[in-house]
């Protein structure tokens, strides 16, 4: 099948590459000429494990190409994916201008029946708006489908190729059939393709992300309770997670969720609710609790050291989670800012995200070549991202590098008893110090 993907961001690139891998011919379209030039030269602008192999293979085999020209790019395409940004506007609602602009442009250039797919996370009612924008100038029949993505950064290729489920929002039988045919190779093991109306599909995406953000926040609240009553959040997590109604995943307490999705989507759903005069109270609580959770360790640090002016802190991890260089809404940055504001110095190491942070913080902090260099001469160690490389470090070496054997762990990487035996003062989340 010939497919076009408009927008070569993270979602568009993964979608395009993976559909090329299942034998389709995919043209990715972007208005950013520099980006398209890079892609044509086989340079992937994002860090996503496993994407490079598929990307190279499909370009080589002629199934994946790139253009800045919308008309050329969609020629012969049976399906056009819209994978465009929907950044939060001033008031928290999703800005649809990129999507609606492309919808306007598509109307007059469609040559045959085409399925246009909203892949971006968009508020309820967007499929109707896209339909109206295309219909204003379209000369041929078309269907607009909502097909939200559930990809996690860092494991996006795996999530794409083996989805838990595929959600297709359409009221057109013709579009449904084409979409089912496209996704058939990915659901051979029997994972469901769930077809529903457009609005339900749009809401499903927000509901999924907001539910997961709420689940994490709930466990963060339990962790805070654990600290006050002397319980251990890891034990509580195991105790509740084994109830199949609750499930084991996304129950890890920490220093709050970040990234480009949860914060934006929780905010957008709360805003959408407001627009229909519904106060989605629980989401307001989730947002404010997540903010305070992010700097939880700063309070501990100040309790431990008193004044931290002039002290040096080693920060391990900058990305909002492992296996990505993404620092959007990353708790690490909020903590670094709080440390700098209090007059402290920061030395840091992250396997992938340092370049991105350099762009924001310049030389206000020191970037080191590995985790040990970052620990050298620091008053304490802070763990902000659970990169596997931080899980089993050489603790004896760390003891020789730090001025004081104290670790503030925002991701609960280590066993509290082991840390005590090793002679560390160890603060973590929801467990006895
Ligand atoms: C999330 C969803 O998991 C995807 O299904 C969705 O497609 C994507 O958003 C999106 O809307 O595009 P992502 O933001 O890549 O994916 O990252 P997650 O792995 O979901 O992690 C989000 C945040 O929650 C991270 O900051 C992570 O550290 C935090 N988290 C996750 C916890 O604090 N505890 C947990 O138990 C799990």
UniProtKB/TrEMBL annotation:
Pathway given in the UniProt record: Nucleotide-sugar biosynthesis; UDP-alpha-D-glucuronate biosynthesis; UDP-alpha-D-glucuronate from UDP-alpha-D-glucose: step 1/1
Record keyword Transmembrane helix present: no
Highest taxon of the lineage: Bacteria
Keywords: NAD, Oxidoreductase
Broad enzyme group: oxidoreductase
UniProt catalytic activity: UDP-alpha-D-glucose + 2 NAD(+) + H2O = UDP-alpha-D-glucuronate + 2 NADH + 3 H(+)
Residue ranges of every copy of the UDP-glucose/GDP-mannose dehydrogenase C-terminal domain listed in the record: 314-416
Protein name as it appears in the record: UDP-glucose 6-dehydrogenase
Organism: Reichenbachiella ulvae
